Amino acid sequence: MKKYFLHILLAIMLTAVAGNAAAQSKTARKETRQGNKEYKAKKYDQAEVKYRRAIHDDSTAYRAHYNLGNALYRQKKYDESIAHYNKALETPDLKDATRAKIFHNRGNSNLKAGLQKENRADGMEQFKKAVSDYQEALKLDPKNDNTRYNLSYAKKMLQQAQQQQQQQDQKGGGGNDQQQNKKDQKNNQNQDQNKDQNKDQNKGQDKSQNQQNQRKQQQKPQEQKKQDAERLLEAVKNNEKNTMKENAKKVEVAPSGRIEKDW
Predict the structure, then answer these.
(1) What is the pLDDT of residues 79-129, one digit of tens each?
(2) One fold for both 17-84 and 94-163?
(3) How far apart are CA 138 and CA 145, in angstroms?
(4) What's the distance, CA 253 to chain centroid?
(5) What DSSP state is assigned to residue 117?
(6) Measured between alpha carbons, how far is 42 from 49 in angstroms, rounded to an integer?
(7) Secondary structure class of 142 (helix, strand, coil)
(8) Mean pLDDT for all residues in the chain
(9) Domain 17-84: what homologous superfamily?
(10) Which of 55, 63, 77, 91 is 20 to 30 A from 104, alpha carbon to alpha carbon?
(11) Per-residue pLDDT tens for 191-234?
(12) 94-163, CATH topology level
């Protein structure tokens, strides 16, 4: 009897859980439909509220996650929209067409997130993810021309981002080379200036030396003349002295018998 009652109790509990889940799914579908009305009216913020309520009632409702991702995308909340597209993709047994749409829209969010960056290189990772999403979408829906166009555009943005990154890297390295070149040029200029100054100093010294030599050469004849004149004058003086001495001697040796008159 106890086993019988346990089976009955378990059956009641399972029925209650199933009924509760059904009620939640019903509420979630209702909230989702209301959110769709707001979305069509372009009231994306109101649609977001409805879709979040649906997810609160049934976290596995992939339609609510998918539509919430779309509402967030319209509000340019790209990172949040990607998170809900990811949730929608976790749902098992989705049809290929549905999965293709989710990949396509997630690719749009990644592409827009990359384009929000002021610098294309900063959006490179988002562009890579967008390319991957569009490629996955085309595998599931090869005839979708919109996805093919978006893939081509995402590849173009990725190429621009890669080129810009290369230019920045080259510019960074080139900047160091330019700084080193400027430094070398400045050092060379300083060396050249020093050489010129040394040359000017040497020239000045040589010129000064030449001037001194010229002055010496000019002074030599004058000094020679002066010295000759001094020697000549000295000789004249000596001659005069000798003459005076000789005259004195003559006077002195004059005959003592003869007296000169003193008048």
Answers:
(1) 999 999 999 999 999 999 999 999 999 999 999 999 999 888 899 999 999
(2) yes
(3) 9
(4) 119
(5) S
(6) 13
(7) coil
(8) 75
(9) Tetratricopeptide repeat domain (1.25.40.10)
(10) 55
(11) 655 555 555 555 555 555 666 666 656 555 556 556 655 665 56
(12) 1.25.40
Whose CA is closest to 52, among 27, 74, 21? 27
d(CA 207, CA 203): 6
What is the value of pTM for the model shown? 0.60
Q: Of how many residues is the chain composed?
A: 263
- Answer yes or no: are the C-beta atoms of 55 and 64 closer than 8 Å: yes
Q: Is the backbone of residue 134 left (phi > 0), alpha (psi -120 to 50) or beta? A: alpha
| Amino acid of residue 86 | N
What single-letter amino acid sits at 3? K
Q: How far apart are CA 55 and CA 47, in angstroms?
A: 12
Q: What percent of the chain has pLDDT over 70?
A: 56
* Cα separations in angstroms, 254 against 12, 98, 135, 249, 260: 186, 165, 153, 9, 11
Q: Is 3 helix (H, G, I), strand (E, B) or coil?
A: helix
Residue 107 and residue 154 in contact, taking contact as beta carbons nearer than 8 Å = yes
Question: How is the chain split into domains, by residue range?
Answer: 17-84, 94-163
Q: Which one, of 61, 58, 186, 169, lies nearest residue 124 by Cα?
A: 169
